[in-house]
Write a structure and sequence with these properties.
homodimer, about 375 residues, Rossmann fold, Dna Ligase, domain 1, 6-stranded mixed beta sheet, 6 helices, 16 strands, about 25% helix
């Protein structure tokens, strides 16, 4: 089951080299849809330019896009970048960050670019947790990927999983399977303030409800696992504001330190909505540690993936935490080469299934973004899957 | 320079396993263009069902297409296939050949399929050297790939290279390069009968003309090679009806055996048009033998390639001859991963260039098929590049 769907992937550097041709081909297919004669693409990375792992991701992503034949340059939202600024990377290569230049036209429209660089498409690898900067607003003649409301300033996990409910409902009917097999239960609490301890009752009730539903599924399938629930900020990312509980009382008796940890996410955003999601214990293990597969897609194509591994976390905890490391998926488990002659649980087939779930999640994300487009009537989150 | 462009590839089995994901992804992108809701694809292979190498190609091609999610079945043009016929392959797998069923509709249109199998698209891997069978004529509601006039019953190499002239002209202008670098000279003799020794004068004149032009290019670039010309049937394939000459007299003094060899090609077709093409000595060597790169594409994507190697042929002869063997290109030279930090002649860059030339050749093929579409005004071959 998918537990997260990131529209600003930060781990392209964790894909194996063997997957590069696939990524390039997918990017080629994608880019010709957006600007048939595109030559220039502007990539906007995160501002935390001192994280060398993240910079390796940007280098890899820019490299993939350049191999398609595009001219790719990096524009920074960071106001401190006032001139072209080279960043040296751990591997000896470097990235050039340039200040964004916004050009207002007489008719009220605006274009975004760099000095002597007018891009046709703008690829956001900045998740906009800090809000949508004015620089990016009202850009209507260039393709902005993903759209601004995909950023965490606007996006809510509950909307995504509500859309995923719809997608899985249809898919499960086609395949005659129980949708629960690929879709974890979830609930939502909308008025939470961890500092002021409001919303605890809602969270406790949701945890109770979810644990009951999970346990009855476990019983029906003869699964001897302990049910647990992941509590996480509805608008958070970076693995911040996440905890694992197996009893409703645990969300009511948080100590000050725990509450502080849950109260704020990236860029200091206050948490006010909380997603409570069925915990999915991972069956993947690597080097004796808990591991979870992370599948990468470009456009609608699965292009590879990697394991997120954490040596000191159990298979019932979020592995997205300091201390994690990443291991590229080997070619054999590239997510797009099922082996019809091997059993369903064989690695190529397991990973193919992960790839299928990733494609369903991407489909859900497109529905989610359509439903949450500013000006559109919002569809209420349907938490009762 | 490209010396051949095959629309009915017979060597998918020679691609390395590492290239499979790329082929599958390209096939996915392709198939959704032709029938958005396609589930059924009919693959029509060659009739020579006892060639185990060819059958491995069909198995691989069908496998790639099945991995995209299609239902793929094989329909045979061979009249001896009157019922579903399993063919055992060398590797223990098997293929099921089924008889084609043509359904005539009241309105004069017709559909092609198998028992209980109505395909949306029909992929021809049969080059129709023996002519266009009635079974395939007038199929107008199913996508036929490639179109019937791409078969050797209609297709002429000279039309292809005339279209390639146009494409390279534009491309060379964009890149400010001499088009000759990627486009070999060619000439055409239209009324040749090797048995009756007609057309020898034309061939000798063309060879003379071509050798002169090649030698002057060699001189301009300081190339110390001996110029040679490949003489081949304008409508032939399978490496039949091909010879290498380095003097005009050689096409006038063919002995009976040589003339018999040149006079007929696959399926016993009589040769009446002859293409005379600048010989391109290969610089590739493998295991001490002459080798030439063969690039494979699906839709508009390069998906890999292999070396054609011949131990007893020189780099000035056609390697497409009995005794050849095939070696998959290693991943590093996958034709789509140029290495900007390596010199132009480094393997990844050499093979990337081969991939670019293959893409130009495919573009030329699409122009060629447009220009030769039945009912369209044929464009005369422009042999003076």
């Amino acid at each position: 089951s998918p537990v997260d769907m990131n529209l600003f992937p930060g781990g392209f550097n964790n894909l194996s080299d063997e997957m590069l041709p696939l990524a390039i081909q997918a990017a080629m297919a994608a880019i010709e849809k957006y600007c048939a004669d595109a030559r220039n693409l502007l990539l906007i990375p995160e501002n935390h330019s001192r994280n060398s792992f993240y910079l390796m991701n940007v280098l890899r992503l820019a490299g993939i896009l350049r191999q398609t034949g595009l001219e790719v340059r990096l524009g920074s939202l960071n106001p401190e970048i006032t001139q072209a600024t080279p960043l040296e990377l751990a591997n000896g290569q470097s990235l050039l960050l340039e200040p964004l230049i916004r050009q207002e036209n007489a008719n009220g429209s605006a274009r975004l670019g760099l000095a002597d660089f007018d891009p046709c498409a703008i690829l956001l690898n900045n998740d906009l947790s800090a809000g949508i900067p004015e620089l990016l607003q009202g850009i209507d003649q260039q393709v902005l990927l993903p759209p601004l409301h995909a950023g965490w300033a606007v996006r809510r996990k509950s909307n995504h999983f509500a859309a995923f409910n719809q997608v899985v409902e249809d898919f499960a009917q086609l395949l005659h399977i129980d949708p629960w097999l690929i879709n974890p239960y979830f609930g939502l609490c909308e008025n939470v303030n961890f500092h002021e301890r409001t919303g605890e009752q809602c969270m406790a009730e949701q945890v109770d409800l979810l644990l009951g539903r999970i346990r009855s599924k476990y019983k029906a399938y003869g699964i001897s696992e302990e049910a647990f629930v992941i509590v996480k900020a509805d608008a958070g990312t970076y693995g911040m504001g996440v905890m694992s509980v197996n009893d409703a009382s645990q969300v009511k008796n948080l100590n000050r330190k725990q509450r502080n940890k849950m109260a704020v996410v990236k860029e200091g955003l206050e948490v006010s909505q909380v997603l409570l999601q069925e915990g999915v214990p991972t069956i993947e293990q690597l080097e004796g540690s808990s591991a979870e597969p992370v599948v990468y897609m470009i456009d609608r194509y699965v292009v590879g993936g990697f394991y997120r591994v954490h040596q000191s976390r159990s298979r019932q905890e979020s592995l997205n935490a300091p201390g994690m490391h990443f291991v590229p998926l080997p070619f054999e488990t590239s997510c797009i080469l099922p082996d019809g002659k091997a059993p369903p649980e064989a690695a190529p087939n397991r990973f193919y299934a992960y790839g299928v779930v990733a494609r369903l999640a991407l489909l859900a994300a497109s529905i989610e973004l359509e439903q949450t487009e500013p000006g559109e009537r919002p569809s209420p989150a349907q938490a009762d899957a």
